[in-house]
Specification:
Helix content is 6%, strand content 43%. The chain is mainly β.
Amino acid sequence: MATTSVLANPYVELDSTDVTDQCSSAVVTSTIEQLEDTAFGSSARTYTAGLQANEITIEMMISYGASEIEGLLDGLVGTKFDTVIGASSATPAADNPVYTLTNGYLSSFTPINASLGTLQTVSITISGGALTRAVA
């Protein structure tokens, strides 16, 4: 039985810029590739840990201007940077894990995603890099 519930309102930082107020979704996926280490004579396949293959996907409302989301993302495409996602704030705690993706890579983004009568949004995926978890 769950002892703690978290209302989804995470903290999001891209390249040292707090973009929390523009985000509507953030997903952190932690992956360690599996490498087969089965030897001759084994009766079952076995595996060992390989490299991290992490990614963070963020959905945000796009805004335009020198210090807005479109300008920030335009400058980050094709570069490595750090991304910080906290469950509810930037301060790590046992009930608020904060994940940092160091040297994640943004390969593309869609600067205009418009439909009549809707807010413009952009979805980005930051791939690669080392993922760490802080709780204190």
